[in-house]
Predict the 3D structure of the following.
Amino acid sequence: MKSIRRPRSRSRPCNRSSMPGYGVDPLQLADATLKQLIDELGARTPAPGGGAAASVTAAVGSALGAMVINWSLTRKSLQEHRESNQRHLDALQAGASRSLQLADEDARAYESLNTIMKLPEDDATRLAEWDTAVEAAMAPPVETLRLCAEMAANLAGLAGTTNPMLKSDLAAAAVLVEAGGRTAAWNIHANLPLIGEARAVELTGEAQTLLTELRRIATEVEQACR
């Protein structure tokens, strides 16, 4: 979700239908080609934005970690780790798939919130649906950050249980998963003004905790791969 601000009563709400490229069915990022994804991210449109970038980056990191394990499952010298490696592989593959879904969910949630923002501030529908719409728009980056922490946990320790020829790929996977989480955290931070103070404090605390863990694991994986 690209950063937005609650409009003032005299300001003109963002109208996506008047923006270039809007008015057609949004691209399903999970099914997009790499070029389509890059073109969409770089376009002068409200979405996809940082939220989608965070989720896609997390997916790439998770997939790279899965590749490392796939090249290790049949290696004779690593058979004692096969069962645990398989569990991590299943988790990373599921994480990559879910991350791509979150990229699309982020864009859809922003669209719903934008519709609410077009209404006058004293409109009954806006007043009734604002909190729900904002929370729904915040949900994808929050889940992405949580998912990145989970994926990082699945990468931890793999340097000693996977093909040593792929240590650079494993390190890159950890770096990318951390980057996805950090990007998601920035999306959360940018939109905290849209929610209540208590909820903002709660999310800020959770984000800081998850980021600390992400950085710790990514650093440990990189050091183990040197």
User: Anything to note?
Assistant: The first helix runs from residue 34 to 42.
